[in-house]
Amino acid sequence: MALSLTMKALTIDHSAPGHLALTAVADPEPAAHQALVQVHSFSLNSGEVHYVIPGGEAGTVPGWDAAGVVVQAATDGSGPAAGTPVVTVGADGAWAELRAVDTHLIGTAPEGADLGPISTLPVAAGTALRVLHRIGPILGRRILVTGAGGGVGRFTLQLAARGGAHVTAVTSDPAKADALRALGAHEIVTDLAALQHLEPVHGVVELVGGAHMVAAHGALAEHGVLVAAGHIAGDSEQFPHGAFFGSGHHHNRQIATYFLLDDTAGLGADLTWLAALTARGELDPQVALRTDWTQAALAAAELAARRVPGKAVLDVR
């Protein structure tokens, strides 16, 4: 696509259905350390549909994840050359025909790969991968994943199983059990009370918050690590008396928090690796909804209502 004075983008418009409007806006002006990317596809995330769209500043272009092709390389010489297929992440600007992206937030995609599924990777798979890194070595260890049926959870199951972990998936929906086993879960838990009877786990990827976080913390083994990377329950955590006593197998357990956009060093290399896995069919993004970007408001509403059993992808046409 030739560069132009104006491009189309989805912008926040609180008077429009779904708070989104497809409008003409000025082309982004990349800084020296940024590449200009023609967006082919972008994916939606839970945080965007629950918080960014309804609460965003009018006229802004939202969006974290996008995949496309570099049309102008960074002038400082960093990052991929023009013509390279890429996957990108940033705090905003993904839902547009063109996106200016810091080069350290760009991963390259294999030539000829379908960029739709690859657009799902940055926030969900990037978070899953880096939270597992935060837990530490997982080969032969026990990993618990709460909110396992969501976007981050599904990637976490696959990556943890690939890394040699024994994986326990926590879901509130028993109907998802077979699908989660197919992604790598060895055990399925649908009742939080059952966590107290599990063999203690070495790591927890906690994506729900509230009672799930409390129960998952109770399942940690000595020296275990719980990483809180999601809060979909919207509830506070109330730990019982004794939860932080250091006796028995409770000794030296840790709770950490995680947010991808505050941990971007080396992220481009991680996205490149994840894109290659996806292109080879070794990582399944679980795309459950794919449509034209003119249907963004509808797709966001479906995702917010939890009627999308996987990732939602929108193609820019």
From TrEMBL:
Please give one Pfam family short name. Answer: ADH_zinc_N
The cross-references to CDD domains, in alphabetical order and at most eight, read: MDR4
Highest taxon in the source lineage = Bacteria
Signal sequence extent: none
Spell out the molecular function terms from Gene Ontology: oxidoreductase activity
SMART domains tied to this protein? PKS_ER
- Record-annotated Enoyl reductase (ER) domain positions: 15-314
Database matches in InterPro entries:
ADH-like_C, ER, GroES-like_sf, NAD(P)-bd_dom_sf, Zn-ADH-like_protein
Protein name, please? Answer: Oxidoreductase
What is the organism of origin for this protein? Streptomyces aurantiacus
